[in-house]
Write a structure and sequence with these properties.
Chain lengths: ~180, ~350
């Protein structure tokens, strides 16, 4: 057996199993902090998949943005609010029914796609050899600042709006002495 | 050859070499950690006109050994209402991420042993600079989880401070490195060292970037002017208050290994890594691991010096400093670097425009 393919398969199945188990952990864990931790493990396993797909930049960005920034903020909120377990466990009426319907629909879609055999790999312009000859980061950078400039800029403006919105919501109105005057009366 | 230095035609030999390298580096880092800590106690003692450790062994040289034994034999306590799993995992995350970061740092030029060329760094990753930032952002978990799982109000306060501080200073840390990235146009640390071989140390055009990086790095490692997450006088040691025995030692280890790593990154990116400061001299000009070690130790000494000199900031000063002073300066540094590139390397700018 080919040595490279063997190692690749080994790494793939190892991290695929880890991703599935950790994803199960996200749903099963009773404590919200443990759920968030399991989600972090899912992100790390997915990052390993990106490395196997010759996309190291995406792998590192995945860890940095999802595990390092987004999930830490989740944890922050969970820790400050300290939600009670009985509230987390309570389900709304019909939630179980909706969940079952969507799970079955997703499963049918997945099996139908796999059974139809329509997912044969297509080879485009960006083969591993082409990307390696220029450099992975260079390819992403060039594409981001030329072909996909508009979506890139729209995404950054969206994030800016979100920041300004968050600051507006968090800002305390400072009316000098209003409080103390009322207290004196 | 792949990033781990494994050739496809001799995988077993290279794999064994890789394992040996990992073991040697972990051992070296842990030994350095133990003695850096001793040196720090000497240096701080000198600065504060005290004597410092001098009882265990000649001049206190066996102090790290005594400390390690003491940590091992202390009773291990886990608070009753702690989340036990998370409480145990948190120090492990801290140490593991601290050790992981060192894997990509080019500590010396490749070594020739028995006809085999052995790269001395563990992984020659193409996105090494981003890898370092990613590992740094994951290391926040250790601190945050430790404080939360202890179920202690001081620990929680400490870990909330830590999360806010580390995330805020990460922004400046990343932006300070953008200047280096712009000049070298690579994320690979080996290529960054090669660039400095040809064009001189990056600290020359990047003085501002270097200073910003060092300040942000002190904040990232929770060192004294910025040690609010573990301020012992207000938070009884913050996030690791409830930790004892070897778990406490783990946080200690993580902190000092992180100091070694951030200094190693600064030495590699700004001070030419393993290159000699006098490349034109016959023997002294040879690049080697000794130059790297010397630069790292000088930087670590500066860290100790700063710890012995400055008082702790207040929380609002800390936040104002990073968002209102450091961040604008880091953005200014990016602008200055762009100016340098256009002024001195017009060819590079044109190539970029095309």
């Amino acid at each position: 057996m080919d040595y490279g393919a063997f190692v690749e398969g080994l790494v793939f199945y190892l991290f695929a199993a880890l991703a599935v188990l950790a994803a199960l952990g996200v749903v099963i864990a009773r404590s919200p902090v443990r759920s968030a931790l399991a989600l972090a493990l899912v992100f790390l396993a997915l990052a390993a998949m990106y490395i196997l797909l010759n996309a190291p930049f995406l792998a590192v960005a995945q860890i940095m943005i999802y595990a390092g920034a987004v999930l830490i903020l989740f944890l922050f909120v969970i820790m400050v609010l300290n939600p009670r377990l009985d509230i987390i466990g309570a389900r709304g009426r019909g939630q179980t029914f909706v969940a079952i319907v969507f799970t079955i629909a997703l499963g049918v879609l997945l099996i139908a796609t796999l059974a139809s055999g329509q997912i044969a790999p297509t080879t485009g312009k960006f083969t591993p050899e082409f990307v390696a000859s220029i450099g992975h980061v260079q390819v992403i950078g060039t594409l981001l600042f030329s072909e996909f400039l508009l979506p890139f800029e729209i995404a950054s403006v969206l994030l800016l709006i979100a920041i300004v919105g968050a600051m507006t919501l968090a800002r305390r109105e400072r009316v000098p002495h209003a409080e103390s005057k009322r207290d004196l009366r | 050859m792949n990033i781990l230095g494994i050739y496809i035609d001799r995988p077993i030999v290279d794999f064994v070499i890789l394992i040996i390298k990992c073991v040697v580096w972990i051992f070296a880092l842990l030994t350095t950690f133990a003695y850096i800590q001793l040196v720090e106690r000497w240096v701080i003692a000198k600065i504060q006109v005290r004597i410092g450790p001098n009882r265990t062994g000649p001049r206190g040289l066996f102090q790290p050994l005594a400390d390690a034994l003491k940590a091992l034999f202390k009773e291990e306590l886990i608070p009753t209402n702690a989340d036990k799993l998370v409480f145990v995992i948190a120090p492990m995350i801290s140490v593991a991420t601290a050790l992981l970061a060192f894997a990509v740092i080019p500590v010396s030029p490749p070594l020739n042993l028995f006809g085999l060329e052995i790269p001395m760094q563990i992984a020659n990753v193409n996105v090494a600079l981003l890898y370092l930032l990613a590992v740094g952002s994951v290391s926040v978990y250790g601190t945050v989880l430790a404080g939360w799982s202890s179920n202690n109000k001081y620990s929680l306060l400490g870990s909330l401070r830590a999360a806010a501080q580390l995330i805020s200073y990460e922004v400046t840390l990343g932006l300070a490195l953008v200047g280096v990235l712009m000049l070298t146009s690579t994320l690979n640390l080996n290529e960054i060292v090669d660039y400095q071989k040809n064009f001189g140390w990056i600290i020359l055009p990047q003085v501002l970037g270097f200073i910003l990086y060092i300040i942000a790095a002190i904040a990232e490692t929770n060192r004294l002017p910025f040690d609010l997450p573990e301020a012992e006088t207000e938070l009884v040691a913050g996030y690791y208050t409830e930790y004892s025995s070897i778990k406490f030692a783990f946080f200690f280890m993580a902190e000092y290994i992180n100091i070694i790593t951030v200094c190693a990154i600064a030495a590699t990116l700004f001070l030419g890594g393993y290159l000699s400061p006098l490349p034109f001299l016959p023997i002294v000009g040879e690049p080697g691991i000794w130059w790297f070690a010397l630069k790292v130790f000088i930087l670590i000494f500066v860290f100790m010096w700063i710890r012995g000199t400055f008082p702790r900031l207040r929380y609002d000063q800390l936040m104002n400093f990073t968002w209102k002073v450091m961040l604008p300066l880091a953005l200014l540094n990016v602008l200055i670097t762009a100016g340098i590139i256009i002024f001195f390397q017009p060819g590079a700018a044109q190539a970029f425009a095309r």
